[in-house]
Amino acid sequence: MPHSTRLPRTGLVRHLAALALAGGLILAAGPAPAQDDPAGGAAVAIAAETATRDGTTRLTLTLSKPIEARAFVMERPDRAVIDLPEVNFQLDQETGKLSGRKRDGVIASFRYGLFAPGRSRIVVDLAGPAVVEPVETTKTREGAVLVSIPFRKVDRDTFRKAAVAGDPSPAASAKAAPARESVDTRPLIVIDAGHGGTDPGAIAATGVFEKDIVFGFAQSFAERLEQSGRYRLVMTRDRDVFVPLAERVRIAREAKADLFVSIHADSISAAPQVKGATIYTGSEKATDSESARLAERENRADAAAGTESGEGPADVADILQELTLRETRGFSAGFAGRLMGQLSPVMEMSPKPHREAGFKVLRSPDVPSVLIELGYLSSKSDLEKLQSEEWRDRVTGSMAKAVDLFFSGRATLSRPAPVAPRRSAAIAPVSP
Ligand SMILES: [Zn+2]
């Protein structure tokens, strides 16, 4: 292959920190890695094929232009994650579903999609332990670009080492060893600004959208936490974009988040006198019918934006997940308690400030998660506060204190063990 060039190994020599940070907008690391794009627009993928030869299985993408790929492997379940700049996947619906006879070498199946604004991701379910070799890029005579990702079968031990290093290549991981002490072990917090894009959330009588209010609040909360230097921050959206509910959960889980905080400010049109903040934690059983209705309305966000939510990762089916979820919910309730303690003195709380309901975004089995309703857009006094910068500074300050208390109290506790995300469907593209 005369045109064969190897992509720069940038990113192959990475460790867990990079892995965890791959989840979305990276506040802690300054500007997100720029995807310079002189050719303009995302690369278009028109085919993704697998082939096995001499013990190596290749996943080959046919693209409109070259892209940089970064891969790492993860255990439980065995999988490889390939991070890409934004790619416009124009693939056949069945691509990646390699069940039964179609299964190819170490690749059991794969799914793909927009993972966060500006980034796409391919997740490859491995049939057994394997590592990713350096990615190769070639050009066809017709001008298309073939990006070939080779998977080499290895023994369990080698795979485990690669998974721990967050590095697909054993050789590269050996070279990376001296840098390992710089692995960032600070807790990772995912801030989820509700709604976005085609989904405005609640709309105030004044025409203000919930999606804009909660985004501004989420951003200033994330900045405050980031400034403390104690946490790594990831936001599920960094602009006015629609992000499906399951995707928000997936971002937190794939980043191995230690805490997930979803920010909302809904409205109750039937009761404009209802005001104050409420903190929700997840539960199959809602505290009251009002909470159940709210969760149900929120859970319809995907359908309302024209996206099929599909099977969520939090489909609790086995006993291990069930146990992990129960333990995680204990942590979630603990954080909700901290939040109430810090918020009650500085802001108005609703009559029952901690409630439970079946919000889809609160279903990560292994990430402590809370959803805070800052107030109601249907209440005139709440709306005024929600738009006041002074109020926002005070509230985000108290929330940051609650986060500090939560993590200092948990120093001696172990984090719930991650459990396998249960997935089968392709990652739904984020754009509506
Ligand atoms: Zn909402």
UniProtKB/TrEMBL annotation:
Residues 285-313 are annotated as: Disordered. Keywords: Hydrolase, Signal. It catalyses: Hydrolyzes the link between N-acetylmuramoyl residues and L-amino acid residues in certain cell-wall glycopeptides. Pfam families: Amidase_3 (PF01520), AMIN (PF11741). Residues 285-301 have a biased composition (Basic and acidic residues). InterPro entries: AMIN_dom, MurNAc-LAA_cat, N-acetylmuramoyl_amidase_3. Residues 249-404 form the MurNAc-LAA domain. Residues 1-34 form the signal peptide. Coiled coil: none annotated. Gene3D superfamilies: 2.60.40.3500, Zn-dependent exopeptidases. Its EC number is 3.5.1.28. This is N-acetylmuramoyl-L-alanine amidase.
